[in-house]
């Protein structure tokens, strides 16, 4: 039986995804640790306490415990300001682990947890596995203004240092693996691809009209869906621009946007989106829906004719995979992991360059051809079936097994 310490410092795996700091990483940590526990592993997940009402420990299921540890003020702190608290948090994790059976490895998520994991690795002399979720140098290319304004200066250097001392750096797909090599010079032999997945018990095809009724959307008319955190990197304005270009050709077309503001630029971005709706004369055609519990999203996917993912950068893109699993054609930017999740012209359409005109053209192609829509939907479901959390957990356990017999990488 393996015992793992899983670090998720800046956001709890039990927090609501789709707003604030909650997104794909929360879903990833929650689902992966759950699958690990089902395979007999013991997971201690550590996250920062940001609310006095949070219990010290939540036993989610046998083999999976989430621990809320205080570090700094017991209140929300923007993740851009959390780096100075990583040492205090690491001390708290070490104190907790000292009371438990030894762990076989540390799995850190995001660079802040990577700093904590790095300290734990040396204190406990166990292998460090890191999943970064987003990479500063890659994000900087897609959105230089966001990175320079929001990110602590130290991030890219800290990421590189943690990578250099990790026994394994986990990438979600070969595109991210390539980015780790090119932007951070990580040696190929330390990179392991562990694709995230989708819970097929919830995310499966179903009747569109029934799904619309279930979530209170009109049964008539064509529907585009955008799901995700609302911040410039996610590209929601492109979806609005595409809708505007298509309004005459498809008078019954509307857009549902599910998600909430995220990051320092989030609130202003949401205000801009609402203003854009009014300016483009799209009032009544765009509905903003607050973040939804993860499992409930499946009904929104099934309700849609097309799911749009206009991100400027994406390390993987769980939303595109979930839509595919529900049998909904995806129109996505041809960037990052989306080029793996969406097989162009087979399971969906990739747009390059990912602007409003390109999205409008691709959406139009799907709406105009029920045959194409059906063909994409069938292939998407088949493609999505390859991604299961059990497979991800098996890969992670195999990495832990291979590392526990080797020598630890020395700090540079
Ligand atoms: N999500 C959710 N409820 C919402 C909006 C999003 O559960 O209202 C989930 C969504 O199902 C997906 C994750 O948040 O699993 C977003 O992951 P993705 O990889 O698409 O983007 P990220 O947030 O990692 O940038």
Automatic annotation (TrEMBL):
Signal peptide: none annotated. GO terms for molecular function: glycosyltransferase activity. SUPFAM superfamilies: UDP-Glycosyltransferase/glycogen phosphorylase. InterPro entries: Glyco_trans_1, Glyco_trans_4-like_N, Glycosyltransferase_grp1. Keywords: Glycosyltransferase, Transferase. It holds the Pfam family Glycos_transf_1. Residues 23-196 form the Glycosyltransferase subfamily 4-like N-terminal domain. It comes from the Bacteria. Residues 208-379 form the Glycosyl transferase family domain. The keyword Glycosyltransferase applies. Its EC number is 2.4.-.-. The keyword Ribosomal protein does not apply. PANTHER family: SULFOQUINOVOSYL TRANSFERASE SQD2 (PTHR45947). This is Glycosyltransferase.
């Amino acid at each position: 039986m393996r015992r793992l310490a899983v670090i998720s410092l800046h956001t709890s795996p039990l927090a609501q995804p789709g707003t604030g700091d909650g997104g794909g990483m929360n879903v990833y940590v929650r689902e992966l640790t759950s699958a690990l526990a089902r395979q007999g592993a013991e997971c201690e997940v550590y996250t920062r306490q940001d609310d006095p009402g949070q219990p010290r420990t939540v036993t989610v299921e046998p083999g999976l415990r989430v621990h809320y540890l205080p570090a700094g003020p017991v209140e929300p702190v923007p993740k851009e300001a959390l780096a100075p608290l990583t040492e205090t948090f690491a001390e708290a994790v070490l104190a907790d682990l000292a009371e438990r059976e030894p762990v076989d490895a540390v799995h850190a998520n995001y660079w802040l947890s990577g700093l904590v994991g790095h300290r734990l690795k040396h204190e406990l002399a166990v292998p460090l596995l890191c999943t970064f979720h987003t990479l500063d140098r890659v994000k900087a290319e897609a959105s230089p203004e966001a990175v320079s304004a929001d990110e602590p200066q130290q991030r890219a250097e800290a990421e590189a240092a943690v990578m250099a001392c990790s026994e394994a750096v986990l990438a979600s797909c070969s595109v991210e693996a390539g980015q780790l090599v090119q932007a951070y010079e990580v040696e190929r032999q330390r990179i392991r691809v562990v694709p995230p997945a989708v819970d097929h018990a919830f995310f499966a095809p179903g009747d569109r009209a029934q799904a619309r009724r279930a979530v209170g959307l009109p049964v008539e008319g064509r529907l585009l869906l955008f799901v995700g955190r609302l911040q410039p990197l996610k590209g929601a304005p492109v979806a609005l621009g595409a809708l505007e270009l298509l309004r005459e050709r498809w008078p019954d077309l509307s857009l549902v946007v599910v998600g909430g503001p995220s990051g320092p630029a989030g609130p202003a971005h949401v205000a801009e989106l609402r203003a854009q709706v009014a300016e483009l004369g799209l009032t009544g055609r765009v509905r903003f829906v607050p973040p939804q519990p993860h499992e409930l999203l499946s009904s929104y996917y099934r309700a849609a004719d097309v799911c749009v993912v206009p991100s400027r950068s994406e390390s993987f893109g769980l939303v595109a995979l979930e839509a595919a699993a529900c049998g909904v054609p995806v129109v996505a930017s041809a960037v990052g992991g989306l080029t793996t999740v969406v097989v162009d012209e087979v399971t969906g359409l990739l747009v390059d360059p990912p602007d409003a005109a390109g999205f409008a053209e691709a959406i139009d192609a799907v709406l105009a051809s029920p045959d194409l829509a059906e063909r994409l939907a069938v292939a998407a479901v088949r493609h999505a079936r390859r991604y299961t959390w059990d497979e991800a957990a098996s890969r992670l356990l195999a990495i832990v097994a291979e590392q526990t017999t080797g020598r630890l990488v020395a700090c540079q």
